Amino acid sequence: MNIRTKPVDISKVKTLPLKDRTNKVSVNDFATLTDSGEGISSFLDALPKILKGEDFLELVDIIIAAHQRKKPVIVMMGGHVIKCGLSPLLISLAKQGIITAFVFNGASSIHDFEIALIGETSEDVSLYLQNGQFGMWEETGNLMNAAIQKAADTKIGMGEALGNSLIELNAPYNAFSLLASCSELNIPITVHVAIGTDIIHQHPSANGAAIGEASFTDFRILTNLVTQLEDGGVILNFGSAVILPEVFLKALTIARNLGHTVSHFTAADFDMQQQYRPLENVVKRPTEMGGKGYNFTGHHELMIPLLVHAIQSRL
After folding, report:
1. Is 7 within a domain?
2. What is the pLDDT at residue 3?
């Protein structure tokens, strides 16, 4: 007998105040941008011009050249980058006009939003999973889902709506938030989610139609950004192993299908281990028509500060 299974009703899900949560990450431990001085410059000059040493210096020069030629430098990033306290460094590059757009998955948006609200994020999953409290934090779910609903209602992207919400809330730690900073700087920031992957989808306030509408708008915005990569643009992937490499590949396909060449650009992947999709869908396949791809393996909390300070030094 074929019995249809009914969707579970989440309207009676119990949520808890965000202030009561124990977190692993605080803005007190975030990275800071210091005067690069001769120290980093001497270090870069001392790198061997061999293999990854040569690749790294090439990429730095390519990013600077893109900036000077007013070509896009798009940064895709997974949630771990936020949790490593690297937002201040990336915000600095955005303020200088070096990074021209950010691309988030759902986890990135949640960690960034919580940082703006309370200066902390990253709950203890094992602790709260035991009693059904994992992810059930009132402010995170209610505020983000309200912003997403507004995005769907007003036909704007999820990233823009979340950033605008933080500005309207005057969240106390907006200076550490990429969402809020992009809203203030009028820099595109898009959010790409899969339904059911993020804690805010567990909340009674979640609306799957609104989530899909807002994220689909951001997909089309990203596709527009990708069309501009031709002839010197740069796309960087920081730590997204699945969602963003897949989204980028589809955006690139649409861009080319619509008649945009999008071939002579640079792609680079930074992650703690080499993953199939970033290597194939960001570094290799998209650059086969004349671009160039790089991949660098190492911890975000070391590699991204190195990249940012190297860019600052070269400038």
Report:
1. no
2. 72
